[in-house]
Design brief:
The chain has two helices and three strands, in the order E-H-E-H-E. By secondary structure, the protein is of the alpha/beta class. Helix 1 packs parallel to helix 2. The mean pLDDT is 95.
Length: 75
């Protein structure tokens, strides 16, 4: 089924900003969670980006969150 809203977030070593962005998105999409999906593309971050995403995947379990992490930084 196609979603009404797809949000794509590229990131590299910006876990604090990503955490704030996902918190903001959680508030904005309230009531429409089943109609939204989030794609996060991580360019091989060396900070705690993976941990932040795991927390939000559990917190926002009613929103489809796809996460892709490059095996190396591709610039």
């Amino acid at each position: 089924m196609n979603k009404l809203l797809t949000i794509a977030i590229p990131t590299f070593n910006r876990s604090e900003l990503l955490n704030k962005q996902l918190a903001w998105l959680a508030e904005v999409v309230k009531g429409f969670e089943s109609e939204c999906e989030i794609f996060i593309s991580d360019n091989c971050s060396t900070d705690n980006t993976q941990e932040i995403i795991k927390i939000w995947q559990e917190t926002l379990s009613n929103i489809k969150i796809k996460y892709n992490r490059n095996s190396q930084n591709i610039g």
